[in-house]
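Changelog-adjacent note: as of this version, every example in the card shows the full chain rather than a window. The one below runs 123 residues end to end.
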Amino acid sequence: MALKITVDPDAAEPPFEQIRARIAERTRSGELPVGYKLPTVRGFAEELGLAANTVAKAYRALEADGVIETRGRHGSFIAAPGDTAAREAAAAARAFAERARRLGLDHGAARAAVEDALRAVYG
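Full-length structure tokens:
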């Protein structure tokens, strides 16, 4: 299965974000299965007519989101859902809780801050 993605140079979102969003969407839908090997950064950049740094930035964002995992010289692969993402979400939540406590927020105020942030992001 070839990874077919098109990038619209006239779109409001930058090319790296278009790549990131399309790969993430296709992963969530199951179209790109766990373990699917993504094209190399250079090869994919050539295919899309973009700079290698643009594709590399998209891959870094996907890895930070837990959508893909990079295995060194072996390449980048679609990650199992929940593995990296769950660990990173838990670490972020713990860091927030520790920071909120240092700021002197009680449990209710910290929870309210989280709920406000979630509403702002998720709608």
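Structural remarks: The longest strand covers residues 68-70.
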